[in-house]
Amino acid sequence: MKVTQAWLNDWVKTNNSLDKLCVQLTDAGLEVDFTEPAAAQFSGITVAKIISAIPHPNADKLQVCQVSDGTQTLQVVCGAPNAREGLIVAFATIGAVLPGNFKIKKAKLRGTESNGMLCGASEIGLAETANGLIELPSDAPLGVDLREYMQLDDTIIDIDLTPNRGDCLSIKGVARELGVINEVAMNMPEIKPVPAIIADKLAIDIQAPSDCPRYCSRVIKNIDVSAPTPLWMQEKLRRCGMRSICPVVDVTNYIVLELGQPMHAFALNKIVGGITVRFAKADETLILLDDTEVKLDSKTLVIADSEKPLAIAGVMGGAQSGVTGQSVDVVLESAFFNPLTIMGTPRRYGVHTDSSQRFERGVDPSITLEAMEHATQLILSICGGEPGEIVVQEHSEHLPQPKKLTLRRARIPKLLGFEISDAQVVDILQRLGMDVTSISTGWEIITPLHRFDMAIEEDLIEEIARIYGYEHIPSVMPKGMLNMLPATELRAPTNYLRDVLVDLGYHETLTYSFVNPKIQGLLLPNAKAISLQNPLASQLSEMRISLWPNLVQAVVNNQKHQQDRIRLFEVGRTFAGHAPEQQPLEIAGIVNGSRNPEQWSEETAKVDFFDVKANIEALIPKAQFIGAEHPALHPGQSAQVMLEGKAVGWLGTLHPRVSQKLKIAGAVVLFSLELDKVSQKIVPQYQQVSKYPQIQRDLAFLTQERVTFGQVYDIVGNSAGELLTKLDVFDIYRGSGVEEGYKSLAVRLTLQHPERTLVDEEVATLTNNVIEALKEGVGAELRE
């Protein structure tokens, strides 16, 4: 946002130097990027009048002009096409210095003496190109220094605004901030209602009231198309980064710069019927003012007549209905558009304008009519015309309303770290245009309509600190009591779990909480995810309901970079809903490729389900696994992880359907555990090492396929008692001699007594107890 020091001084008199002004703006949150002079350095240029202009005797494109500066008349040779008798011009006298240290000397052009130079805008640094001389107003006083007359000793201030401060995208907004900071009232321009002279008007039909709660239009007929834009307005536009086009367009641009209300002007003869505010229809197209043709989508709000779209609402008008230098009858538009409706539209069409910049951030809905009256005043004063009445179509229930917030007195020092008096709080808030009512705990605040960023109590406290001045906030050392928290060995810290996985060869990764909805849909087709209203990108438009989508994406990316052994894990929060209990912390991992790093003395083996199962058992020694199906996992190669009878996570091989669609090579094994439920840790217990010999017994049982080793482990452990120190499976056989649907399971029992040597009789008894328990529990038969 570019403003000028002189224009700000017209609105609020602070008597501050430029440096102090820039410091005040920056400290208030309106960061000044840079400043620059409004015009290049030159001297010796005055206001003069061309008394006569006759063709040069020796050149077709030159004229010999007699130029008067009020005290003397000099002969000047000029080649500008608009040089003519009676024109008031910028005259560089002998000895004048133009930008670039170009000195004017007496000269002869084609044999004719020239005593000075008549200047165009480009020659004195007011424009990059110019087609002729600067045409000054007819009442410009002759002989006055041009810098003084045009107030060129001004400074352009470029302000880098944050997105929440759309209220400062105008001279009025910046001046309002300076007035608050310096406790000075603003000098508002006098804006009076302009009475209608003609009865012409256009009917307005708002078909999207929540997106356009208010739309105003006014017909102005019979304007003087030959009238030039006043020099003072051209200069203000130039200094703020806009170029002059024609009076009507210049006025609408002037209004957006001064008041912050975007406006648009249509050529009346290009509008068929009335004006309709609606969403675009299928296959509608529009050629914009920059001659770009766009195909409109159904999410785009447009201004249309009875036949066609005329403009993209709040963004840019159409070339077909735009005002030109030949437009005699025009229609002015001033409206309020919902910021959420306009937001994203410029990006979709690649068209970013001053209008869209303001509507996306929110425009003060109270100035819609004020802007229309001010624009009418300016147009009539420049090029005349006959105004009609202002037609207003409004749906007040959809217009923004002042917000009512509660500010607690005790909350201010808690956030700011220092005490500020009640009187100062009330003064600052009232200077900011807020209505303040005292209550027992603090104040009830009603915010002004132009402050769209005021939503919560903390916003008010931030405003208090901002206007009070950050530099005035005292530096106070924080105080706090540090208490020793109880530490328990029963709970494993997250870093311990991380260390276990790192020791197992995993690498920790950190990904966005946003995921690709396509990948999440593949893995969890029946789950409902939280969609983002304004995503960073289309591939990051949903909140993750599992850590798996981003881990799977990481495998895809790593394989594209020729990584053939991938072991990743992540600790993070998932978002199944908005409630805290629906956002648990999880620890998840993914493995792909070879079981071990490539090594010359070992054969390469691919990782499988049981490798990752062993990793989970390293994390949770008491974990149990129950076969279960999960939509993301391969049927028959997936299990639910259990701990003390409760489900705590999943383990399994990625479903081939998913691997195929994502073009993942090789088997991918995943696991996911709820962190709070798996943080229990086995506390080490001292146990004396027995000095007596161990006894081992190998037993082979014939069992049904459905029988798991977990069942066998529990039964053997209960029946063998404390003498059983170890139980291993050393063989599983299926084939000849074993009936289909059965398997041979061979286990090794290791028995040891801590205080004596076991005898054969008690070992035989214990072994028989194990055999009987397995027979009774799972129908296992001992193989001879």
What does this structure look like?
This protein is of the alpha+beta class and 784 residues long. It is elongated and about 140 Å long. The mean pLDDT is 92. The longest helix is centred in the C-terminal third of the chain and has 19 residues, at 760-778. Strands 27-30-31-35-34-33-32 form a seven-stranded mixed β-sheet, sandwiched between helices.
Distance between the termini: 92 Å
Strand order of the largest sheet: 27-30-31-35-34-33-32
**How much strand content do the residues show?**
25-35%
Helices and strands: which structural class?
alpha+beta
What's the number of extended β-strand segments? 39
Could you tell me the mean pLDDT?
A: 92
Number of helices: 21
**What percent of the residues sit in helical stretches (DSSP H or I)?**
25-40%
Low-confidence stretches: none
Shape, per Cα inertia axes:
elongated
Cα-based radius of gyration, to the nearest Å: 41 Å
Q: Which sheet architecture does the biggest sheet show?
A: 7 strands, mixed
